[in-house]
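Question (not urgent): is this output format expected?
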Amino acid sequence: MKEIKLKQNDLKLLAYLYHNARESSTKIAKELNLTREQINYKIQKFESQGLIKGYIPLINYAKFNYPHQIILLLKFSNNSKIQEFKKNHKQDKNRILHGELLSKYDFFMVLVFQNPKQRNDYIFSLLHKNKEITDYLILEPHHLENYPLKFAGISKKEPHLIIEYKKPEIKIDEKEKQILKILSKNAKARIIDIAKQTNLSAELVVYKLKRLKKEKAFLGARAYFDMEKLGYFYTLIFLTFTNFSKDIQEKLKHFAKTNQHVENLSLMLGKPNAYVQIFHKEESELRKVLENLKEIFKQESFTSEIIPLKKEGENVNALPFL
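Got this back:
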């Protein structure tokens, strides 16, 4: 794949859209010291190049009574079965996204559930129907932070907190469900278009979106990129500590927040205890991240495992249960 070369202003725009895709062109232009016309032109260009694949909502699933988010890693006896598996499970009401791995596991799924029984029933059914699955690993984060694209020169490093301990569930009406369904297909949909599709006034759509944000149910929108077109690769680093103390967890959060390659951090109760997802162009950058971890935790006993991703994920459905 031919790498797309971008100027620093282009990278900053992508990084801004990564966490603020619903902002107006006027506001983005002011933030990046560009004109609105330049912003609109660049975004249209990125979309036509396939660099921006779409726009997805950031959702706090606990607010919708889906507090259990898991990552399911699967090993297949025959890789030729993966495409059929994708097709068969694309519409699963618990599936947010899936993708292929380049490691001892072949495939991953990101799933959400209302309770442990629903999770267990789904996994048992999946294994029963797909005899070609020879091994699996369940990762269940209790804390997940998603960071800005720091390598693009973004100075603001505060993360989006995607998973935290369960918060009170929000009650939504049918019109709010319709709004969220529209956003799940295109999180950058214009207010006027949402109003037409829901038969609401633009003012009422704005009010309902503000309520969903105030309740921290709808956290915002992000552009979804084809990072390989920028020459970047995705890698997960699984970490297992002998004693996964609070101090270690805080050090991991600080590392993830400040390291320019880290895109998200997940903390888990089981093993592995945590993983970081990184973007990197060269193997040397991956090695540097590992060296930094070794230095930070030189007084601790831990192991690491590298899990390369073929892509960050595909066929995203941020609200499959609606």
